[in-house]
Amino acid sequence: MKIFQSTTHYNYDWEHVSTANWQKYSPWNEKTPHVIAVDTLSRHVDPASGVLRTERLITCEQNCPKWLTAILGGDSKSQVYECSYVDPKSKTLTLCSHNMTYADLLSVRETVVYTPSAHNPESNTQFTQTAKITAFCGGWQKIKNKIEQFTVDRFVENAAKGREGFEMVLERAREVFAQERERMEMSQRA
């Protein structure tokens, strides 16, 4: 098993980030053209804790080597299951996801946590990302290591694009929120 970890900060408060998260795969994000569908499977709020739990299925068009799909079958579409928890009391947004496509050959389990930054909780949000990558190749340790390292390297590239794209979403959300606030203020004055 190989592990990828990354921590960064966004210059937006937690409320802004946790709200904009639902637009992460929208047209506002030019870095996610590979995401072709996001289906919400379930969503509910726990009445005791106030935690919003959402399950989604994310379908992607992957740039998979043709020789691999020829050997394993299937096509270039892959699916990821995501379960998220928004806890407004502790101001924590946690997303847990894992691949469903080729899961018997490669397991990618990702956890993302958004919390107010310890240094500036009023206007910054900390983003922590961890991925555990495990290839299942029987006793072929050398092949297993190469597959896991290739996947980690690809994960590093995609994570950088993902953070860059989410910055676009956050900026666009700021504009939309400002326009909505202005519209509400104008209607209250009228």
UniProtKB/TrEMBL annotation:
PROSITE patterns: PRELI_MSF1. It holds the Pfam family PRELI. Residues 1-178 form the PRELI/MSF1 domain. GO terms for cellular component: mitochondrial intermembrane space. PANTHER family: MSF1/PX19 RELATED. This is MSF1-domain-containing protein.
